[in-house]
Amino acid sequence: xxxxxxxxxxxxxxxxxxxxxxxxxxxxxxxxxxxxxxxxxxxxxxxxxxxxxxxxxxxxxxxxxxxxxxxxxxxxxxxxxxxxxxxxxxxxxxxxxxxxxxxxxxxxxxxxxxxxxxxxxxxxxxxxxxxxxxxxxxxxxxxxxxxxxxxxxxxxxxxxxxxxxxxxxxxxxxxxxxxxxxxxxxxxxxxxxxxxxxxxxxxxxxxxxxxxxxxxxxxxxxxxxxxxxxxxxxxxxxxxxxxxxxxxxxxxxxxxxxxxxxxxxxxxxxxxxxxxxxxxxxxxxxxxxxxxxxxxxxxxxxxxxxxxxxxxxxxxxxxxxxxx
Length: 324
Hints:
The protein has 14 helices and 3 strands. A hairpin with a 2-residue loop joins β1 (116-121) and β2. It has a 3-stranded antiparallel sheet, with no helix packed on it. The protein has helices at residues 2-26, 31-52, 56-65, 67-88, 94-101, 104-110, 134-155, 160-188, 194-204, 206-219, 225-252, 257-265, 270-281, 289-309; strands at residues 116-121, 124-129, 322-323. This is Multidrug resistance efflux transporter family protein.
């Protein structure tokens, strides 16, 4: 149950991203700066945290083991996750982005066949390819249906341009984040903790953020003081606190694709938290009864998924593993 609780708290802090990105976009801030500033601020904050834990040397040694893997999967997990999210904020409201982002509930489950686990057998070691946990996908689909209901009445009034540029980038992000996270867990194999992994991925993704910042400086000029301050808040609450909590949760269940999918499903609660934040801070319209029905489905689906994930599995093979 602990991974689920950590995932829920992570979703609360992740929701800050959608609310503040919407706020910065309303104020005229460029998505290029919203994306890059978050990771620039994360570096010193995480260096301080990992340094105080005396784990910097171990992290840098781990990164030296396979720098190419770190660069590639950090770009996928952070770059192809957050840049599309902030880009979408220029074309769609925060509630729509938060709702679309919940596709990650099922996208994470569909990534399972890309990963293997090594098992000891009578004839020696064997690699087991994970299979899609269809029962978990079904539980996730309950939450996804709830999210669709929440957004249904709003979607009818959205122009085609907003649907394309506001939704398609988020779909890319919904696959990139769990893929990058899982691949880095595979590369590190438990040798470093969540704090170290977040810092390492942030450092490895810096070349991408520097390029975005250069483009931003040459196209829209420097960011405003308001955008800088709000980006700092996103870095603290979402970039550091939420990401570390989420990585801690996924680390605890990294060997079980069913439980991993359940932890990733906790991110569905971001819709509720983001909606509350936008009502409070941005004074958006109060949701209708249809939207509240959708929220109820999200909560029910989350409870069902959580209970299912607590059931022990006798082996990876029983959960759908295939020896290859």
